[in-house]
Design a protein that fits this description.
Elements: E1 4-7, E2 12-15, E3 25-28, E4 33-38, E5 43-47, E6 54-56, E7 71-76, E8 79-81, E9 94-99, E10 103-110, E11 113-120, E12 127-136, E13 142-155, H1 157-160, H2 164-167, E14 173-176, E15 179-182, E16 192-198, E17 204-208, H3 209-213, H4 223-227, E18 240-250, E19 255-266, H5 282-288, H6 294-312, E20 315-318, H7 322-342, E21 357-358, H8 359-369, H9 374-385, E22 397-398, H10 416-431, E23 440-443, E24 446-452, H11 453-465, E25 489-491, E26 498-500, E27 510-511, H12 512-531, H13 535-555, E28 565-566, E29 572-573, E30 583-584, H14 586-593, H15 602-614, E31 615-616, E32 619-620, E33 623-624, E34 650-651, H16 655-664, H17 668-677, H18 687-690, E35 698-701, E36 712-715, H19 720-732, E37 735-738, E38 741-744, E39 754-761, E40 764-771, E41 780-785, E42 788-789, E43 794-795, E44 803-810
Parallel strand pairs: 40-44
Antiparallel strand pairs: 1-2, 2-9, 3-4, 4-5, 6-13, 7-8, 7-13, 9-10, 10-11, 11-12, 12-19, 13-18, 14-15, 15-16, 16-19, 17-18, 20-39, 21-22, 23-24, 25-26, 27-28, 28-29, 30-33, 31-32, 34-35, 35-36, 37-38, 38-43, 39-40, 41-42, 41-44
Helix pairs in contact: 7-8, 7-19, 8-9, 8-10, 8-19, 9-10, 10-11, 10-12, 11-12, 12-13, 12-14, 14-15, 14-16, 16-17, 16-19, 17-19
Organism: Bilifractor porci
Protein name: Glycosyl transferase
Pfam families: GH94_b-supersand, Glyco_hydro_94
Length: about 800
């Protein structure tokens, strides 16, 4: 069952009913100001940091769903409705929501009145524009009342949702003409405030939620709207809101427009305050004057669309598969940019209160967007590196506003350091910019301890090498990629109390997954050393990589697949000797991607076991059999019911690792089969089962052991976006950036006769045509560049030209 359809010509997803299985959302914003908006206009806005600078409130886990957003109430006599259906839920005569790239258009009509709301964040300004057009399509004049509504958050979203004894006394607002200023915290010299304004003269306003809604009413039936007039309330403490009352008298066929601006304003650091609580309105006035006319708004929207068109032109394909083309050309890359901006901080499943930017998360997200904006990738790498500790370990998360590590979460996730190597190597392969390795980066955000980025990478590698367990495998610490596999948390003996041991205090758990990472990214680090003429260090690293490879094949091989880990008692996890959790997906994908077992059949055997034991109709589950009881020695992973999340759910993030692994073995048919199963565009027709957006990947799909097998959860902010784009663009379509040029190495289904890729690489536009007349799955017999036959399949960087024509013949 579908709830909408793709409009490929407009790069939009068109939702045709407000009653989607879950709120289907979009992200507005490209730089510092961001908003989440659902198909019924729910959501919230923030500046840079979803926790510390939240402009508007949002209620998770509420009933009805999706409570709170930017709402426009239209009062037509005794009928009150919203163009997005929520929150009045008045039945509409027509409805649609068009989610585009950085903008959303919600349209509704009732009793021959049409209303269209266009919401977007301009490319260069910290505000959300709501452009509301109302048209009379009937044959008689109409007299309408329009009420806008947003509910302000008291900036710190965590404090706002908990510290009521204080918050109920701190809300402050000011109204000047058609502009409402939310200035809570300005008295504390926080130097910022929010503004909510409309470009027309207003009939009235409200800034007190109690006055506007009423003490015992809800968003669906505000007292002021039902009465048809604002209360002109000024909030003092309690819950500050912003609401404008406007009138529209429309003749038949006539339309009118309103421009609402929700903006963030702050003064320069050196600018003095006039007095506590008195705001400097100059920044707001400068912002608002840019968006007073329809033409100004339309030009800003055009600029936004042009921005996304230019961005996504970096990598485009024509494959003959309509769904694959729309995924690669638009929605997957768009999601990669969103996850780069947000990490895992703010979605309809992440409240934005705690996580901030993930160290591992941001490094992986970079893999999917580095080709789009390399300069921002460079900036992000340097930010991430500066939160690292001197011994090479890292904070697991950091706050995007302060760039400080999150002490509440701390460190000890021992895969984190190696992801910095992965992201930096990917950036250099894409750009050829080795100068980033000379950039000074702090340790633990302390500028006095800054060293070149290359030293940070060196310490990442050294940390893994110096934290090995009894099998010669890396210590897992608190966890590796799977945060829920906590193998150093255990009872010392059956019946004894729960304890947690650090690596120097007691038994040590080990990770085969991190071992595989070390093999893969150790090789990439050695290549960087080669390029820098550090031959002795490169040789030393390759020796360590070889030893780790041997440790994996000796202690990490279970007979038919790779073991997942060893717990604190040195007992295998993910082995046939276990009653439950006998095989995990992660080491199978990463070990094969690292090249472990390619020469002795172990790689083939491992992937065969994945297909036979882990694969399902909706994707590959994380492990099997599912854990049916809680295991203290395994930690959080067994706290989930069978089939959900890490306990045998289909974790979409690591399904692409199997895709990549299958291509390394030349299995093009199998690789694409796995790729399709978790792809949202291929699941659109079963949206009543999948539930999450058909244009965005979700983190997890309920596995075969779950009562809701096939149900998607936690959409948008997931490493799935970056890894699936990497899998399709570099491993299946086979266009791979390397230190020495662009490598062409496709691995495709044998039914595919050919395809084209347009790919910008180091300022050159490559037009690549891949031909497969022999219908093979893998293998390149010739590469021609601008009519010249190349040796091998790596195209050295083209110089002196802005474009290159490439023909690749498989065979």
């Amino acid at each position: 069952m579908q709830f909408g359809h793709f409009d490929d010509s407009s790069k939009e997803y068109v939702i045709t009913t407000p009653r989607t299985p879950l709120p289907w959302i979009n992200y507005l914003g490209t730089q510092d100001f961001f908003s989440l908006i659902s198909n019924t206009a729910g959501g919230y806005s923030f500046y840079k940091d979803a926790k510390l600078l939240r402009l508007t409130r949002y209620r998770y886990n509420n009933c009805p769903l999706d409570n709170g957003g930017r709402y426009y109430y239209i009062k037509d006599g005794n009928t009150v409705w919203n163009p997005g259906w929520q929150p009045t839920q008045t039945e509409l005569d027509a409805y649609s929501c068009r989610h585009g790239l950085g903008y959303t258009v919600i349209s509704g009509s009732k009793n021959k009145i049409e209303a269209e709301l266009t919401a977007f964040v301009p490319v260069h300004d910290p505000c959300e524009i709501n452009y509301l057009v109302i048209r009379n399509t009937g044959s008689s004049p109409r007299h309408l009342d329009i009420f806008s509504f947003v509910e302000f958050c008291l900036w710190n979203a965590a404090d706002d949702s908990s510290n009521f004894q204080r918050n109920f006394s701190t809300g402050e607002v000011e109204v000047e003409g058609s502009t409402i200023y939310h200035k809570t915290e300005y008295r504390e010299r926080r130097n910022h405030y929010a503004v909510y304004s409309v470009n027309k003269k207003i009939e009235g306003f409200d800034t007190s939620r109690d006055a506007f809604i009423g003490l015992y009413n809800g968003f669906s039936n505000p007292e002021a709207v039902l009465a048809g007039e604002s209360r002109n309330s000024i909030a003092h403490g309690w819950a500050p809101v912003g609401s404008h009352h406007l009138k529209a008298d429309l003749n038949p066929g006539e339309a009118t427009s309103f421009i609402f601006v929700l903006g963030y304003c702050e003064n320069p650091e050196d600018q003095k305050f006039e007095a506590p609580g008195i705001i400097n309105k100059a920044p707001a006035r400068r912002l608002l004057e840019k968006y007073q006319t329809d033409l100004q708004v339309k030009n800003a929207l055009f600029e936004l669309k042009h921005y996304w068109t230019g961005l996504l032109s970096s990598y485009t394909v024509e494959t003959g598969d309509e769904k694959l083309d729309r995924l690669v050309n638009v929605w997957n890359q768009y999601q990669c940019m969103v996850t780069f901006n947000m990490s895992r901080s703010a979605s309809y499943f992440e409240s934005g209160l705690g996580r901030g930017m993930g160290f591992r998360d941001s490094c992986q997200d970079l893999l999917g967007f580095v080709h789009l904006i390399p300069s921002r990738a460079r900036e992000r790498i340097l930010d991430i590196a500066s939160t690292q500790f001197e011994d090479g370990s890292t904070y697991h998360q950091y706050q995007p506003l302060t760039k400080k590590g999150n002490a509440d979460i701390g460190s000890g996730f021992n895969d984190d350091p190696l992801w910095l190597v992965a992201s930096t190597a990917a950036y250099i392969r894409e750009t050829g910019d080795f100068s980033i390795l000379d950039e000074k980066c702090a340790f633990n955000s302390d500028p006095s301890k800054a060293v070149p980025l290359m030293e940070h990478l060196r310490r990442s590698i050294r940390f893994t090498r110096t934290h090995l367990g009894p099998h010669g495998l890396p210590q897992i610490g608190r966890a590796d990629w799977n945060d829920c596999l906590n193998l150093n948390c255990f009872s010392t003996q059956p019946g004894e109390s729960f304890q947690t041991f650090g690596p120097s205090e007691g038994p040590v758990a080990e990770s085969v997954f991190i071992a595989a990472m070390f093999v893969k990214y150790g090789k990439e680090y050695a290549e960087l050393c080669d390029a820098l003429h550090l031959s002795e260090e490169a040789s030393d690293i390759r020796k360590a990589v070889k030893e780790m490879n041997e440790a994996v094949q000796t202690s990490g091989w279970d007979g038919k697949w790779f073991v997942r880990a060893y717990d604190a008692y040195s007992r295998p996890v993910g082995s046939h000797v276990n009653d439950e959790g006998q095989i995990y997906i992660e080491p199978q994908g990463m070990c094969v991607m690292a090249g472990i077992g390619l020469d002795n059949g172990k790689a083939e055997e491992a992937l065969k076991s994945v297909e036979e034991r882990l694969d399902t109709h909706f994707g590959i589950v994380l492990l099997t059999p599912a854990y049916t009881s809680y295991h203290v020695e395994l930690g959080e992973i067994s706290s989930y019911p069978p089939g959900y999340k890490e306990n045998a759910g289909i974790f979409c993030h690591n399904n692409p690792w199997i895709v990549c692994a299958e291509t390394i073995l030349g299995h093009g048919n199998r690789a694409f089969q796995v790729f399709r199963k978790t792809c949202p565009v291929y699941l659109e027709e079963i949206s009543e089962i999948h539930r999450t957006e058909p244009y965005a990947y979700c983190q997890m799909v309920a596995g075969k052991d779950a009562p809701t097998f096939g149900e998607g959860k936690n959409s948008w902010l997931t490493g799935t976006a970056a890894w699936t784009f990497t899998a399709i663009s570099q491993y299946i379509l086979g266009i791979q950036p390397t230190l020495h040029g662009l490598k062409i190495d496709p691995c495709i289904p044998d039914t595919v006769e050919g395809y084209t890729v347009n790919r910008t690489f180091r300022n050159v536009r490559y037009h690549i045509r891949v031909e497969n007349p022999s219908h093979v799955q893998k293998g390149v017999i010739s590469v021609t560049v601008n009519g010249k036959l190349m040796e091998g399949n790596i195209i050295p960087p083209v110089t002196g030209k802005s474009e290159a024509d490439v023909v690749v013949q498989m065979g």
